[in-house]
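Study the following:
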Amino acid sequence: MATLMFVLAHPDDESFGAGGTIARYARRGHRVVLVCATRGEAGKCGDPPLCRQEELGEVRERELRAAAEVLGISRVEFLGYRDKEVLLANPAEIVGKIVQLLKEERPEVLVTFGPDGISGHVDHRAISHFATLAFWSLPEEERPARLYYYAWEQGVREHLQLRQALPSLPVTTVLDVGEWVEVKKQALLCHRTQHLSLERVFFSLTEEQLQKALSKEGFHRVWPVWTGGEKERGILNNK
């Protein structure tokens, strides 16, 4: 079985962006590794607050580990950077940490944000940059066989009212994760401190709208370079 590695910025990024994909491959016996740059300590504590601000990083780490268990993630690693400060990380240091994890796990597939960060968040854009540098810094024989960026289709962006700071990359890969929507919803609900965002983005929708929003996940294939042909069905040899 193959290994997939997701290199993301905050607790909840894994569930919002690719929870269905993670559940799909984990339940088919593949190993999924999650690398998270921060503990989300600059986020919201909920309304009413579920913890004090100084406790939020620890609470969100627990929420992420609970979501990882729901999704079937085998390993969670935190890089130890502060929320909203990933861009300030020493490039050699953070790239070195990601390279070390890539060498340890030897994933066939690496997934991160695209340059647009999906929502334009500065941490999303920064971790995309550093993860991509890590990918290309490895010798070809040690590099993952495939590199993907999150790339939600415009209709989904509009449906979820996502702001867009940079032009989107074309969607090359669409996964039907309808079978795992309930798992994805349960993972999202693990992030209790972020309930305001969840309600605004997802749980204000009708059940039909929610099913539609969660049942397909899109990606842009960076490597091997997409030549503009037909969209592929999956990220592991179309399986």
In short: The two ends are 12 Å apart (CA to CA). The mean pLDDT is 91.
